[in-house]
Amino acid sequence: MNLMKYILFVVLLCLALISASQSDLLFNNYRINAVARNPAAIENNGSINAYLGIHQQWVGFEDAPNMQWAHVSNFFDKRNMGISLNILSQSVGATLTQNIKLGYSYHIFFKGGHNLSLGLGAGLYSRNFDLSKLRFEENEQNNPVSMENEIHPDFDFGLEYTYQKLTIGLASNHITILNSKATLFKIPMQNNVYANYTVGIIKYVSIIPGINFFNSGTISSLGVSMDFLYNDLFNAGIAYRSGTSLIIRAGVKISSSFQFSYSYDMGSGSFTTYNSGVHEVVITARFKKRSESFNSPRFID
Questions:
Q1: Which CATH class is domain 3-288?
Q2: In the chain, where are the structural domains located?
Q3: 113 Rama class: left (phi>0) / alpha (psi -120 to 50) / beta
Q4: Predicted TM-score (pTM) of this structure
Q5: Tens of pLDDT along 277-286?
Q6: What are the residues whose beta carbons fall under 8 Å from the beta carbon of 145, sequence distance 6 or more?
């Protein structure tokens, strides 16, 4: 690794460590991954739904940020409610965060096809800080080798409104920790707001413009996207996140039950010269509970 590349990586990693103490890593494709953050986004589509995802930043660098998550959910039509299980693990340098959470949503159906979903999430997260990964230029023999760990209760709130092809959502995570109370081991409250709308343009072809906003303390980002969907089988799109990311993404419906989605964040600005981008892969599985068919707005993203 040449000197300039090494110096830039150290700067990026320090920024990531600061960010890691303030917020979770951001998804490249928030619409398909809304279920991982928003307990109100449990889908009512006649299936048991499962997601498995991997998010890897700065491929080729040791201790680069990465994230893995799994989600399983089921909706009970007779009770207008859904439940979910979310498991997430993310690491940035010497910091490892692991989160397990149960989610609950209740759907309120209004005349004319309007639907409002309210959601709550509750669980625990564990944060480890591995001091043995720190490197010092002096007194190497006195380097700390212990691991600091704290476990905290964790709570989320969410809502999602849908009407025909329109979806608007809000997810508030870690809601019991104000920004002023945040530490390396306590993640402060963060908010995601998103909206998307599906527009049919010609037979079998639709476009899905979207927007999302993220905020956690002093950290904010605004993203816009445009996806093209063909016959509910293939999709391709592009997204831009305020000054930091230019993202391309695509997905394919492998069968009636499985979908594969991939996105690549090539970055923007001068940093694109020094990293090999951010890769994100999501596999979605839907296991139907009965014979009738439901259409989910998230099946292709």
A1: mainly beta
A2: 3-288
A3: left
A4: 0.82
A5: 789 999 999 9
A6: 131, 132
